[in-house]
Design the sequence.
């Protein structure tokens, strides 16, 4: 992004926040407790992970004594994964959804990816706040190590947004891309140590997991939440490089194709 | 006269792919394979609009009016040429991205932000917007409950809440009732008096005459005429009258069983494909003077011994502009066995005037079709000749002209020099 584009985006920040607010409001339309559902859903989800897995199924994380550990391990992986898939899948329909706007009004094109990110962040922050509250209430507050989470999540978001914009742009021209992305995400979920710890899978599979840029990122987040451990920063360099490449590629494709994109909608 | 808007040789080409796969092929071949057909919806349009001027854009449906406005508003990117705009452009389009489930008030904020206003500005302007739209308490109802007229009122009120440098109005006003139309007209007039430049698309001649000084007439993507609004409108109306009569003639012919395009002959040899090629491959629009290649291919159904291929270019009124055949060009007639194919490629500079033309292809025996006609096909295809880099000219032919032009001093000086 050039400084000019950043300036244009900044001068349209009202539109970005407006679109985010509108996106969130759409979901509470014609609902008596619109805003409450934004909180109730994730709260139930977190309750299931922590209570059901610790009390009913008595699932334990290998090497950790705490009965609640597996539940928090799940939350530390699934909440960011939901954030990741939301960015990538919503990016597929982003331009199609805003087609009438793109065809009628001129505004900086970067507004749409920015609004996508904004909505994703809000939808992510709500369950994270609940998770943090539960951690605090159960006496498992990780402490200052939480400061390591935002940089890890920034890499995470850059990767998601880059891939999302790249495939979302291509999806306008070839709808096959959207279908393929949906399937790829399902594989990706199971090829990332989110519901299982990397330590329990056979060695060859573990070697394959090492190629997944999300593996070190999610491990860092799980370490922060479950063990209160600082990430091994050197393991995050490769994912950061991949994320940077994805972001540049996605942005480059978007810029190169944005003129044709409007003609195609 | 400072220009608020300058449009130079503007063109918009849409690519059409028969299959999504074809685009993939083009991408993968890095442009070496061409699998799309390009349609120029606008070509070679140049004009200037002075600050505070009101310009109407008239033309039949599909003439390229909306495409032109979209290019000026910066919503779509031109395929060639450029648009220079001085100042803030407000384009008035129906809906303006209104979300049906949100209230008029919420949508007013969203629309204002889309136009580049800040939420605080919209809040400050809202009482005025409400007053102008006159939709009363409905401002707090979801927009889905609005009539189309109410939506236009709100859209117009928001879009014109701040006076833009350039206002683009695209046929939206036709939706409102007479009272609201009058109100909008008054506001547009006031903006114009305050220096706003207006681009106006309307089929309503009265509105055009009242709001615009000048008019541009578009026809199938070409700027065919510009001048004082009244004059252009008269011309346009005459054109429509002729189209109507053309239509009636065609209807009559069809009723008589003659069909729109005529094709006759024994079909012993038959034309299968006719391609118009320019410098970039298949083309339907050519700049004046550009080389045109006409490639005709076909096959014989029965053995023939003296095939001549000819073509004729006709203008939109059906007048033959130019025609020739292989015989006159000195190419020997072809002898074909049954099932054998042929290809003829003519190349010529299109030194003819700007306009729409049709192509006739004839396959016949010997010098003229009188001896025997295999396949005579009128209006096989049509193409356009658009302004190129040559100076502006009028007429049916392009005769490259040079000029020597000086005042009388030369002669006077000579006379003075010869005196003493």
Sequence:
């Amino acid at each position: 992004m050039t400084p000019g584009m950043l300036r244009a985006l900044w001068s349209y920040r009202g539109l970005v926040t407006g679109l985010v607010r509108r996106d969130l409001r759409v979901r509470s339309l014609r609902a008596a407790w619109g805003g409450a559902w934004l909180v109730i859903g994730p709260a139930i989800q977190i309750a299931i992970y922590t209570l059901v897995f610790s009390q009913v199924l008595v699932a334990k994380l290998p090497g950790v004594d705490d009965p609640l550990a597996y539940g928090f391990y799940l939350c530390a992986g699934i909440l960011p994964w939901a954030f990741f898939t939301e960015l990538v899948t919503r990016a597929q329909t982003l331009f199609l959804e805003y087609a009438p706007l793109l065809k009628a009004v001129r505004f900086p094109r970067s507004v749409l990816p920015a609004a996508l990110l904004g909505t994703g962040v809000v939808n992510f922050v709500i369950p994270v706040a609940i998770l943090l509250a539960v951690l605090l209430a159960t006496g498992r507050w990780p402490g200052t190590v939480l400061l390591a989470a935002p940089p890890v999540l920034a890499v995470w978001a850059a990767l998601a947004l880059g891939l999302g914009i790249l495939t979302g742009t291509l999806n306008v021209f070839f709808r096959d891309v959207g279908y393929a992305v949906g399937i790829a995400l399902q594989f990706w979920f199971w090829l990332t140590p989110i519901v299982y710890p990397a330590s329990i899978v056979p060695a060859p599979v573990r070697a394959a997991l090492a190629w997944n840029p999300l593996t070190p990122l999610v491990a860092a987040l799980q370490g922060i939440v479950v063990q209160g451990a600082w990430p091994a920063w050197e393991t995050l360099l490769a994912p950061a490089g991949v994320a940077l490449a994805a972001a540049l590629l996605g942005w480059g494709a978007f810029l190169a194709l944005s003129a044709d994109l409007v003609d195609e909608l | 006269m400072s220009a608020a808007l300058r449009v130079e040789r503007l063109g918009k080409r849409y690519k059409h792919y028969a299959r999504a796969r074809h685009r993939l092929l083009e991408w993968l071949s890095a442009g070496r394979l061409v699998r799309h057909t390009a349609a120029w919806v606008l070509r070679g349009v140049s004009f200037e609009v002075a600050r505070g001027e009101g310009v109407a854009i008239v033309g039949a449906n599909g003439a390229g009016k909306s495409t032109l406005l979209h290019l000026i508003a910066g919503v779509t990117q031109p395929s060639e040429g450029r648009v220079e705009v001085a100042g803030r452009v407000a384009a008035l389009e129906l809906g303006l991205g209104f979300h049906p489930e949100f209230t008029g008030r919420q949508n007013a904020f969203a629309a204002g932000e889309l136009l580049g206003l800040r939420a605080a500005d919209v809040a400050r302007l809202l009482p005025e917007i409400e007053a102008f739209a006159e939709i009363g308490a409905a401002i707090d109802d979801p927009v889905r409950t609005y009539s189309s007229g109410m939506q236009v009122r709100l859209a117009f009120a928001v879009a014109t809440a701040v006076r833009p440098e350039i206002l683009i109005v695209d046929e939206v006003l036709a939706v409102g009732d007479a009272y609201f139309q009058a109100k909008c007209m008054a506001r547009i007039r006031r903006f114009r008096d305050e220096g706003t430049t207006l681009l106006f698309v309307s089929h309503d001649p009265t509105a055009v005459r009242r709001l615009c000084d000048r008019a541009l007439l578009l026809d199938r993507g070409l700027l065919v005429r510009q001048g004082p609004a009244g004059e252009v409108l008269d011309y346009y109306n005459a054109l429509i009258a002729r189209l109507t009569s053309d239509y009636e003639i065609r209807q009559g012919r069809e009723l008589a069983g003659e069909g729109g395009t005529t094709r006759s002959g024994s079909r012993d040899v038959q034309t299968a494909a006719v391609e118009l090629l320019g410098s970039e491959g298949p083309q339907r629009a050519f700049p004046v003077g550009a080389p045109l290649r006409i490639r005709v291919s076909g096959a014989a159904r029965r053995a023939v011994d003296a095939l001549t291929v000819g073509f004729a270019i006709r203008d939109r009124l059906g007048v033959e502009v130019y025609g020739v055949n292989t015989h006159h060009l000195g190419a020997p007639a072809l002898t074909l066995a049954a099932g054998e194919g042929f290809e003829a490629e003519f190349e010529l500079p299109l030194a003819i005037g700007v306009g729409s033309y049709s192509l006739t292809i004839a396959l016949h025996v010997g010098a003229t079709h009188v001896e025997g006609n295999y396949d005579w096909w009128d209006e096989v295809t049509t193409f356009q000749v658009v302004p190129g880099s040559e100076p502006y000219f009028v007429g049916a032919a392009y005769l490259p002209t040079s000029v020597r032009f000086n005042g009388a001093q030369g002669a006077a000086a000579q006379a003075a020099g010869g005196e003493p």
Observations:
- The interface with chain A takes residues 14-15, 20, 23-24, 70, 73-77, 89, 91, 93, 95-97, 99, 101-102, 106, 109-110, 113-119 of chain B (CB under 8 Å).
